[in-house]
Amino acid sequence: MSSILTDKRTATLAGYVDDRVGASKIVKTFARKIFPDHWSFMLGEIALYTFVVLLISGTFLTFWYTPSMALTTYEGSYAPLVGQTVSEAYETTLNISFDIRGGLLMRQIHHWAALLFVAAILAHMARVFVTGAFRKPRELNWIVGCLLAILALAAGFTGYSLPDDLLSGNGLRIISGVIQAIPVVGTYLAFFIFGGEFPGEVIIPRLFILHVMLIPAALLALIGVHLGLLVLHKHMQFPAPGRTNTNVVGYPVFPVYAAKAGGFFFIVFGVVVLMAAVVTINPIWAYGPYDPSPIGAGTQPDWYILFVDGALRLMPGWLGPIPTEFTTFGYVWSLNILLPGAVVPGLMIMALFAYPWVEQWLSGDTREHHLLDRPRNKPTRTGLGVAALVFYVVMALAATNDLVATHFHISINDMTYVLRTLFFVGPPLAFWVTKRVCLGLQRRDRDLALHGRETGRIVRTADGEYFEVHEPLDVYERWNLVQQEADQLVPLPTGKASGLDKLRARMSAFFFEDRIEPVTPAELEAAHAHDDGHGRALEGDTDPHAVSASGRGSETGHGH
Amino acid sequence: MKDSPTTEHNDAGPSHGGVGTDLAAPEGAALDNRFANPGLPAHRYRTTDIDPAAAKRAERQVSTIFLLSAVGTLVFLVGYFALPIDDDKSLGRLQLSTMVLGLGLGFAIFLIGIGLVHWAKTLMPDHEQIELRHDIRGTDEERRDASNIILDGVEESGIMRRTVIRNSLIGAMAILPIPAVVLFRDLGPLPGTVLRESLWEEGVRLTRDPDGTPIRAADVTFGSVFHVIPDGLSESSHPIEEKAKAAVLLIRIQPEDVQPLEGDLAVRNDWDYDGIYAYSKICTHVGCPVALYEQQTHHLLCPCHQSTFDLTQHCKVIFGPAKRPLPQLPITVDGEGYLVASGPFPEPPGPSYWERGASA
Ligand code: HEM
Ligand code: FES
């Protein structure tokens, strides 16, 4: 082994650092930690890297941006707006775009990175959900992840408002309207947040400090916790030959993983810059400064806020003759705003936070899990995930109802009726279809494990019967199809069952009743006997590469 | 048990849970009715591992990619200095500058990444390695020790014995956050009645948005729409806040197209002037400007969430999330033939709020 200590100068430097921070211990602990590889693990990485891009590009923007709503007359380089009264926030955002070389590029980098950041977080969450990566011992990290997702939305929304252009101003107007609708304290809250009537003169500076300090700091801290827990728990891995619940199979951090992950950072950063170079985003000069009176058709927020906006659009103010806003003792209950604007998002967030515990309660499974589930093997969970996604997408689509309607020449009202129906019908339907698909895929896995792969070769037996030759899977291929545990139901306790017990048993049945049992060796043997009788199977069930027949063997066999 | 291989079987199921941290592991469970993990398949070598020429080729590829990245940086620098945006202020020049800078920088960054990944994939060792997991929880002994330390510490501090200290501390701490909340009181003024008030009152002229010129009734032709602000808006102390309440739409329609109101509201039947109707432009949903007018149907549409108000029914909501009609501004003409308000809005314009009360 060639030691880094053979070079004298590095040795001195390394020694210097080690004397002061104990670097050698840190290197020993972390440099060879093993990380498993899978494309879906890159989603979280994209989120992390776009966050870094946001920190870099955002800091650049702060050198010129002025978070002030004081009015001034625009005198900059964009001729069509010269002479207009605009806020300093709007003016300086224009200046960044038109007078600073690379400024527009930086704004577009910042905005594209923001869109990608939120997208990556949500995709990462979906991955964690459908693979069951939130199970014990990682429930707390799921909570941290949910907080990160909420903060990401907050970061995006506060940033979106900063240029003080027409679109973002209308977004704030909507927020102020939703806040005012909160019973009892709403009006006061709105006055405190906006420093008086909408829009006031303080909301931009307040959002600015949230946007550039409080929210990034909280994100940074939580990302630290998130990654700290990741290192503590070690990464999960997909089940595969040699991968067990008690090991991690993959590449060492140094050098392979570091090179790949580091390289991937540059790839993500590079792609964001390339997008910013060629695709315009948020051309605030075309929207004009905020003014409470004008507005264009097709006003949409950034994509991740669409679902709230869409929910607001779906909710009718009148259900036939019944109003959804009413007054009791002179006080107003605006359910038309509260339900879609606060209750629906609130329930969604609560469901998100609670899910790991709900599932744990229904499976009664409190063991540690370090192997991911293949989504098809958990049909109910995967179905719920897809249903949630459809719910989200229907609401987001609703926020584009005017664009879709004009594009396809249908009436906005019809479009809205269809989406209102989908709001209720879509998620259960998606659940049902997904669950069936998962069960179907499991059945196919079973078949494949039992009877092998179709080869397309037809063989005629001596008695004149025709058969397609099936080629059995080798043990490695087969393992992926048979490794999962059968799901267990929580039964009703014997003796007196409380209402809660009954609920639990019923929900547990809903979760786990429909299931396909994994193939057992006995079944395989029986199938082989059967197939052989028909001359279907070929030889070749054993694999010369098999290290050992047991999981333990695989661990010791490849020790490090 | 903790380090045993575990993927095989577990038939313990739900009852297996319980306290502590069992790994999903068998405890003498019947292994024979589950398959055994076959272990890692044999390693497959890459061509770069076996063929020195392939390795050499990969090496050349990686270094070429890094050199191309440097070219990107040069493109950026040339673009920065050769394409000023202050002498040519056209959008075209700006776009060109953005594109050259962005493509240069983008490829410079992107290619570093591609080079690193290609290097790692072709030339760095790709033997998968195995690390064992260990229990997250401490051993029973560690748990016992830890809880003893805490108990001892609590005992040493005397917090459980010296109840006077403890209770006074709890009491003091309980009220300590109050200043932190109170301090935020001055974030904004109390609402009072300002949401009910707007610049409109009897005699205030209707003027064009944004230039503030007054509108002669004779200029309002059938089907035309005027975006209106009250006279004197720009001199008011908070013009934007006032505009957010006072913006008005002015539309002329055949008076017989409008269904007359009955009962208490019948007084409003003459709030128009000769078929010229003035309605608040601020949506009663959450406050966007209701800026779209469909001439044929006489519908006003809010672009934010598509609340639709029917002018022929005094701006009653006929679709969408808003519940209340747009407040109507009573108007007439002054001595010079200019349109003026004949009174304030009958109710607060804009979105609902808790204290707003019922509307007509
Ligand atoms: C943490 C995640 C962040 C997200 C999701 C985010 C998102 C956004 C968005 C969408 C905009 C509007 C951009 C536009 O089109 O003009 C914006 C503006 C801005 N952001 Fe961020 N940002 C983040 C972090 C930061 C950080 C860390 C800083 C500074 C330290 C920063 C500084 C700014 C500034 C100064 C603006 C206003 C200038 C402008 O709009 O061009 N941002 N942000
Ligand atoms: S603000 Fe007008 S419909 Fe929502």
Explain how this protein is built.
The complex is a heterodimer of chains A (560) and B (360). Chain A is mainly alpha-helical and 560 residues long. Chain A contains 20 helices and ten strands. Chain A has a domain at 32-373: Cytochrome Bc1 Complex, Chain C (Up-down Bundle). In chain A, strands 1-4 form a two-stranded antiparallel ribbon. A two-stranded antiparallel ribbon of chain A has the order 2-3. In chain A, strands 5-6 form a two-stranded antiparallel ribbon. The longest helix of chain A has 40 residues, at 412-451. Chain A starts with 7 loop residues before the first helix and ends with a helix. Chain B is an alpha+beta fold and 360 residues long. Chain B is built from seven helices and twelve strands. In chain B, strand 7 (299-301) and strand 8 (308-310) form a beta hairpin. The interface between A and B is large, with 155 and 121 residues. The complex binds protoporphyrin IX containing FE and FE2/S2 (inorganic) cluster. FE2/S2 (inorganic) cluster binds at residues 283, 285-288, 302, 304-305, 307, 320-322 of chain B.
Detail the topology: elements first, then pairings:
The complex is a heterodimer of chains A (about 550) and B (about 350).
Chain A: H1 8-21, H2 23-30, E1 34-35, H3 42-62, E2 71-73, E3 85-87, H4 88-98, H5 103-130, H6 139-161, H7 166-180, H8 186-194, H9 203-233, E4 247-252, H10 253-278, H11 284-287, H12 306-314, E5 318-319, E6 322-323, E7 325-328, E8 331-334, H13 335-363, H14 379-398, H15 401-408, H16 412-451, E9 453-460, E10 466-471, H17 475-482, H18 499-512, H19 521-533, H20 551-557
Antiparallel strand pairs in A: 1-4, 2-3, 5-6, 7-8, 9-10
Chain B: H1 47-50, H2 52-82, H3 91-122, E1 129-132, H4 140-157, H5 163-175, H6 177-182, E2 206-208, E3 225-230, H7 239-246, E4 248-252, E5 276-280, E6 292-294, E7 299-301, E8 308-310, E9 316-319, E10 328-329, E11 331-333, E12 339-341
Antiparallel strand pairs in B: 2-3, 3-4, 4-5, 5-10, 6-7, 7-8, 8-9, 11-12
The structure holds protoporphyrin IX containing FE (HEM) and FE2/S2 (inorganic) cluster.
FE2/S2 (inorganic) cluster binds near residues 283, 285, 305 and 307 of chain B.
